[in-house]
Amino acid sequence: MMDFLASICCWPIYDDVNDTPTETTPLMTPRDLPTYGYQTIAADEFRVLVLHPARSFSDDIVVHLQTRKRSDDKFYEAISYSWGTNEESEPVLVQDEEFASLHLHNQNVTTRLLRYYQTRNQANATLHVRSNVVTLLRYLRYQWFPRYLWLDALCINQSDKSEKGDQVNQMGDIYRKSGRTLIWLGSSRTFPRPLSAMERVVRSRKTKPWRESDQSKLERGNDSPEVQLEETLSQGQDFRHILKLPWFQRRWVIQEVALSPRPRVVFGHDTMSFEDMTYLIDQLGIRRDKQRDHPRVADALHTLESMTSLQRRNSFRGSSLFTQIKHDLFLRYYHQHPKSSGPADFIQILVSMHAAQCSDDRDRIFALNSLGGRPTTVDYQDSVEEVYSRFATEECTYSLETLFCCGAFPSQCLPSWVPDWRSPRQWIPIKSFEKRPPSHQLLSENPRQHNQPRHRPIIIESRIMVINAIPYTVVATRGPRLCGTWREQPWRSIEKFHRFFACITDSTSSCTRAHSLDQLMKTLTAGGVLSGTNLENWLRSDEQSHNFMEAQPAPAIACCDAHNVSFCEYPRKHLNVFNILQRIERVMEGRCAFVTQRGDWGIGPSSMLSGDYVVALPGCQYPLVLRPSLIGVQGTYKIVGDCYITPFEGYEQLSTHQSARAISIV
């Protein structure tokens, strides 16, 4: 109880006089002490770092490690931070666990506090950790009370692969059962308290319309420092440096925040809740689609959106009425984040978070492992290829819709049915857009369909997958992709797609132009927009894309019937037009148009060729494009990728008049 009260009532009361990152200013005196030797712990145990108090910011860091059972409910705080690229290390003084238990624990409060200072010089070992870890420990250290933390760099024996695997397996529970998670963003002399500054700017913008008139600003002068500062801050320029911090690019932090009951952001001596920070960033209007020249900022905004959605999902699992009301108060920001309490689809998370980085490629799966409903086994003694192959086998046994990711994450050294999560994403699987209207920017949370026992694949020697499939059609003609001038001339690009489809199918179809425009929009948006109403007028217009692709129009008009259904009437500048064009851009990334031998319209991987086969798989809503393998064995194929065809009957309906056959995928 004392530990919990200390975490609420206390915060480090001393400041670093220079407020300079200690990564570049080592403060510790080297000691001639041996390296700390970790004691072996059981699979159901974990270590907690006890950070000893100090009177001065520059005092040596003194800690000891405490072993706990997973079933223990004692208070501790988990740390979420970025390891960073700086390899320089500094020593941390470590006291023996038995010595600490004898002299510091099981004592009354007064005796314990006195002995923390009396035993500071009795450390008998050191651990060398990265300089940024020493920095965060200095900022988080209390002056009078010990602090109980979970920090992977010190609480896990990083040199023991077996222990590391066991601890990563239970990392989800460690963050979930923590009192709260402290998100360490770093410290900086240039921006000493950026979180507080961000809050002040948002508040000033909300009070600005009635606080100061345009006439008073004009009298004060447009070139005054106050006006320039207001304009700069109102555009969010000074806060992009926060989103460029390494923490926002790190893969591990996603599950650390998503599973935490109370995440709190710490930037030097500045602090606020994670919910408040994400809300304030949204209020600043730093839009993801406007950060094409700042990819790190765009990736950070997407990471925040995804973490918010996942954290909201987990926080509603057994949450109180007060928590639900608090979330609903932020309706403007959280309207895209459903109050679902079920586990998120793990494959969808991997697709969405492809840009998040980690130093070990095995962690591209392990770092998000606790977010799925069926965590895979964490074993750092396996190679990257073995981890990916085992994971693909498990997921394909669960659902064949996992194969939709294969072409999107291609590999030169793995079978084509194994997604290589190290590879840059070539396109977004069609499944990710399922049941998602054009106005929603996050990827779909619609789970994959389970395999029936008779449809589960057979894996031969970890290289060949045998599945049942129904041959549907063959790719007849490969069409255009989105050209480089899409954002400048979207209507010309859409007309180009329409001419391609119409030219190929005119000889076999007598559909009207209105019907063909409906089919065009359904194809280019992967079923997101079913009607091409009013598109004809837009195609004939001279409107340039900067009205929609560069400068988002005003919010959608509530009375407009076209919202998320079709284009609004020309020339009304409506948000719905922007949403549809943006969806086409995202769906068609890395894809091209094509026509099948049956005359169907479709979109598929840009690497597809005429003669590729389109097959239907059991339990899969969308077809898969296959290419005969070059090994010379009949019935052996490689996966090209998923595709969208309109119309597509689906495996269940096709199986009523066509027979499935076994095919081998290598």
TrEMBL record:
Domain Heterokaryon incompatibility, first and last residues per copy: 76-256
Residue span of region Disordered: 200-227
Domain of life of the native organism: Eukaryota
Matches recorded under Pfam families: HET, Het-6_barrel
Stretches that traverse the bilayer: none
Compositionally skewed regions (Basic and acidic residues) per UniProt: 209-223
InterPro entries: HET (IPR010730), HetReg/Transcr_Mod (IPR052895)
PANTHER family: ANKYRIN REPEAT DOMAIN-CONTAINING PROTEIN 39 HOMOLOG-RELATED, HETEROKARYON INCOMPATIBILITY DOMAIN-CONTAINING PROTEIN
The protein, known as: Heterokaryon incompatibility protein-domain-containing protein
